[in-house]
Amino acid sequence: MSELQRVNAAAEFLCARLPQTPELALVLGSGLGGLADRIEDPVYIPYAEVPGFPLSTAPGHAGRFVAGRLNGRSVLCMQGRFHYYEGHEMRDIVLPVRVFKALGCRALILANAAGGVNYDFSVGDFMLIKDHINFMGVNPLRGTNEDEIGPRFCDMSRVYDPALQQIARDVAAAQGLTLREGVYLGYMGPSYETPAEIRAFRTLGADAVGMSTVPEAIAASHCGLPVLALSLITNMAAGMTGQRLSGEEVIAIADRRGPVFQKLVADIVAALP
Ligand code: HPA
User: Fold this and answer.
1) Is residue 77 within 6 Å of ligand 1 at its C-beta?
2) Distance between CA atoms of 41 and 142, rounded to whole angstroms?
3) Whose alpha carbon is nearest atom 3 of ligand 1?
4) Over the stretch 177-214, which tens digit does the pLDDT of each residue have?
5) Alpha helix positions (H), the chain
6) Which residues in the chain come in under a pLDDT of 70?
């Protein structure tokens, strides 16, 4: 089966279950899935039911699609995503992105929890991702290219859509919310980074570090789906404070900042063209 056939099979299955054609797709990360609970007239579709989909295992991730209306827009939301550190293949991690495109979504919002690398940032800050560094050691486009999905050699000079970024800035400003901006570095995980790695990543130009988002953003760029990506800074990265890192702390901060984050994303959804 070609990748396009796999994408189309999943898209056809979802299309039959969806209440309406989704305008926007959202991928919500660790502790940020609460936004899906704001969706009106929700239809829940567990990933396990979708042909070709893997199972999500990360803590804080529900592992299902939630479709419905958010602030007047029809959305298809992933409550939980697939990570490379879970052992998933890259083609499975990016399958949902290609399915969003096949379903006719016009934009993709990616959200994640990330460690702050920039010393100007604080725990609880939100960061607009302006660009990324793929430090995962893998590329989701490796292997046979299917030209129907996207080009073999794909331009990466505008992965994060400038117009969507401006909408996010305007919405944050209207809410009186400080929105940091910076470069997200994707790290394979699942171990957190060492202090030496964090110093190296800062030198390379990273402002935040996390274990997701980069594969999905590359695949979206490849298939021509405009992307907006936001990080919640759940901790300062390794070696930046006297404290050690814990996954529980990341989820606790995500829970605490969840409502503010949900309002930001919900208003961005309403403001999208
Ligand atoms: N490093 C990598 N991934 C993360 C971090 C971090 O410090 N915080 C949340 N996700």
Assistant:
1) no
2) 39
3) 210
4) 999 999 999 999 999 999 999 999 999 999 999 999 99
5) 3-17, 90-93, 95-103, 162-174, 195-204, 214-223, 247-271
6) 30-31, 56-62
